[in-house]
Amino acid sequence: MWEKDIDINEVREIRSRTLVYFGVGAINKISDICKDLKAKGITKLVVVTGHGAYKKTGAWDHVTKAFAENGITYVHYDKVTPNPNTHHVNEAAKMAADFGAQAMLAIGGGSAIDAGKSVAILMKNPGHTAEELYEFKFTPTEAAPIIAINLTHGTGSEANRFAVVSIEEKNFKPAIAYDCIYPLYSIDDPALMTGLAENQTRYVSIDAVNHVVEASTTKVTSPYAIDLAVAVVKLVNEYLPVALKDPTNLEARYFLAYAALIAGISFDNGMLHYTHALEHPLSGVNPHLTHGLGLAMLLPAVIKNIYPAKPATLADVLAPIVPGLTGCACEAEKAAQGVEKWLFSVGSTHKLEDEGFKSSDVDKLVDLAFNTPSLGGLLGIAPTEATKEAVRTIYTESLKPYNK
Fold first, then answer.
1. Is 355 exposed, middle or buried (0-12, 13-18, 19+ CB in 10 A)?
2. Which residues of 138-177 are buried (b: 16+ CB within 10 A; e: fewer)?
3. SS3 102
4. What residue spans of 154-270 are helical by DSSP H?
5. Rounded to whole angstroms, what are the CA distances from 155 to 33, 359, 374?
6. In sequence order, what DSSP letters do the residues of 267-291 get, joined into one string?
7. What's the DSSP call for residue 46?
8. How far is 123 from 133, CA to CA, in rounded Å?
9. Which of 124, 130, 321, 347 could pair with 86 in a Cys bridge, judged by C-beta atoms 3.0 to 4.6 Å apart?
10. Are residues 82 and 115 in contact, defined by beta-carbon separation less than 8 angstroms?
């Protein structure tokens, strides 16, 4: 049905440039990656991680062994937090420059990978800062080679050209997208993901669903982005409950990781709009807010807004989680309430009020959505006109649940 929403005369870009080693045991490919780096004359790396997952998952043992076998030396920046900020990037970039690092290896979820991508840009653009990068004061065309070992099934950053880093002093959480930050190599090993906590499992997978709901409905989407979206929602609906019940189930982790990977490729082609543009102010104001939870709280109201503009596409994409949609624009309320019911069924029951946001905060959030660098570009490709009133309505309707 979604084919009805495609203008066949619009020329779109189809992107997928990273070599991803995917599957149980893929971490062993780090040895081949290090051999290739050495053959290219790259023997000094900066490693960017969070505080502990790189070790707890077992990834670090494989990495350090491969480094030793191939004569690779490194410096290690391990201070990245969820919702990384420009200070992390600047500190890691200085460490890389002082060491003379030639490439960047990130180990972690989207936060570590996005911070690492930003470090890789600064490595090739000395004299610039992360603040300048994320306020678009220069346009990079080069970055140091990027290798990503992904430890979550959510962002898709291991296979696309996007990165997000906050400028905390301004409550800004901008996104960048440059061809130079496609990773050279990435590893997606589901066996490294079995230790994800229940909430991490829940919210990274909800992140993937949001990626494709948005990517399939922008003004610049493509059949490729939509086709991937249909697959992603089906897979998350089927395997997220399994992983929540049995975190060690490798089949569930495999297909959730695959869903997240192709979701990342989907929005690399279709881009994003309301949900991410409106979530970034939430976690810009509250850096401790889990990104996927922020998205979950906004998604039903976004569905209500956009469904009349893309009913055929959304009926197909949402079919596994909201059965019975026919593609009529009149179904916006049903679709929004159905998505909220599904979110609640997988344990995502919080709304904005539960996370401390009040109706008095809405005007500030609206201003940030329109004033944060890069977010205007996302709002500009939303399928409906992204007026301040429309954005205010989405925030307001996200304060409390639709389903009482």
1. middle
2. eebeebbbbbbbbbbbbbbbbbbbbbbbbbeebbbbbbbe
3. coil
4. 198-215, 223-245, 250-270
5. 22, 29, 18
6. HHHH---HHHHHHHHHHHH-TTS-H
7. E
8. 12
9. 130
10. no
Instruction: Collapse the DSSP code of 195 into the 3-class scheme (helix H, G, I; strand E, B; otherwise coil) and give the result.
Output: coil
Terminal Cα-to-Cα distance of the chain (whole angstroms): 32
Helices (H), 127-215: 130-134, 198-215
Question: Whole-angstrom Cα distance, residue 36 to residue 80?
Answer: 27
The alpha carbon torsion through 327, 329, 331, 336 (nearest 10 deg) reads: 100
CB atoms inside a 10 Å sphere around CB 11: 7
Strand-pair partners of 77: 48
| Residue type at position 149 | I
Chain segment 185-237, per-residue pLDDT in tens: 999 999 999 999 999 999 999 999 999 999 999 999 999 999 999 999 999 99
Residue 199: other Cβ atoms inside 10 A: 14
Residue pair 391/369 in contact by the 8 Å Cβ criterion = yes
- Residue 323 · residue 302 · CB < 8 Å: no
Which two three-digit tokens encode residue 178?
Answer: 């440059």
Instruction: Select 26-188's CATH number: 3.40.1190.20, 3.40.50.1970, 3.40.50.150, 3.30.750.24.
Output: 3.40.50.1970
> What is the CATH topology of the domain spanning 2-12+196-397?
Dehydroquinate synthase-like, alpha domain (1.20.1090)
Domain ranges within the chain, ordered by starting residue: 2-12+196-397, 26-188
Instruction: Say if pTM beats, i.e. exceeds, 0.90.
Output: yes
- 163-196 per-position pLDDT tens digit: 999 999 999 999 999 999 999 999 999 999 999 9
Write the CA distances from 279 to 283, 320, 399, integer angstroms: 7, 24, 13
Region for residue 127 given its phi and psi (left: phi exceeds 0; alpha: psi -120 to 50; beta: otherwise): left
* Three-state SS at 240: helix
Q: Judge whether 256 and 205 are in contact, CB under 8 Å.
A: yes
DSSP string, 336-368: HHHHHHHHHHTT----GGGGT--GGGHHHHHHH
H and E: helices and strands count for the chain: 16, 8
Stated as kind and residue range, the H or E segment containing 293 is helix 291-306
